[in-house]
Amino acid sequence: MKLSHSFLHSLVILFVSVSCMKKSDCIDPEKLMGDWYKQKINFENYQKVNSTFYNGTEFIDLSNLESSNYEYFLVHYFDANCDKCVNELTKVEKYKELSSESLGFILIANAHTEIYIQEAVERKKFALPVFYDENFQNFKRINNFPLDDFGFNTFLMNKNGELILFGTPFENEKAIAAFNSIINGC
Prior knowledge:
This protein is an alpha/beta fold. It has one domain (28-183): 3-Layer(aba) Sandwich (Glutaredoxin). It is built from six helices and six strands, in the order H-H-E-E-H-E-H-E-H-E-E-H. It has a six-stranded mixed β-sheet. The longest helix has 24 residues, at 2-25. It is globular.
């Protein structure tokens, strides 16, 4: 009985320690984001890009995010004419493999023609659904994001279509921790 009580006591201490640690690791996205926090993200009727590597993951209905099973979305906007940007798709897929099931992925590609996007997606054997911004950089324009600042290309958004946090969680440990703390309800 003494061993069980000691073991139970240790579990309670561990649980309290982990709970406290999680709270101290929490971030306040409103404080970090300022006026950007909960800004409504606008989407247009983007075309779906066809790919032979597409894994069957459903395309998210951008006009009705609330009906989705996801609580949050990682939105990644990339330029299909940029090798560095296209190479990030591998990192996006790796992040998806490690991420929570409550996180959906919305990828929007920018290019002068859809063929550039199809070639880029095929070259990377990218399996996630991609939308095409056929009105060159319109996604950034309608959301008042700077056109030449890559810091606005990746962000976390809630299912109400509100911006929560900018960052690239597949390249930066602090961004990974920040995104995960929000997604996991910290």
